[in-house]
Amino acid sequence: xxxxxxxxxxxxxxxxxxxxxxxxxxxxxxxxxxxxxxxxxxxxxxxxxxxxxxxxxxxxxxxxxxxxxxxxxxxxxxxxxxxxxxxxxxxxxxxxxxxxxxxxxxxxxxxxxxxxxxxxxxxxxxxxxxxxxxxxxxxxxxxxxxxxxxx
Length: 151
Fold this sequence. Notes:
Elements: H1 6-17, H2 20-34, E1 43-44, E2 47-48, H3 52-56, H4 59-77, H5 86-98, H6 105-121, H7 127-149
Antiparallel strand pairs: 1-2
């Protein structure tokens, strides 16, 4: 698989990384719009969220958003050597599988990531950028999916 275009990835991520929590919230709000069945997977101390808004404003979930944005940051930082993240990403895949996330949900996460980038960057989010991010995300998900294979 050919590598994503590093400069396009880095350039577009700079704008997002200035306010990761804000943009991460856009990503998850979109995710819950597209796949509402994911909401019950997020429970803290046995508390079930009554709505996406309830979830998106909880301190525990904001912590999860921060972690997700840090994983994306790590992928951006290592875009030219994503194989260095393979073990870490496979472990992340195992954690997600353990809490009941289906591998198929990651395609919705990918759509939500592209939506967030488009909202953040507006017209600056070019088709070439979209292609680069789609490629980067495919590589990340391929590594995470090893967590479902039990390798």
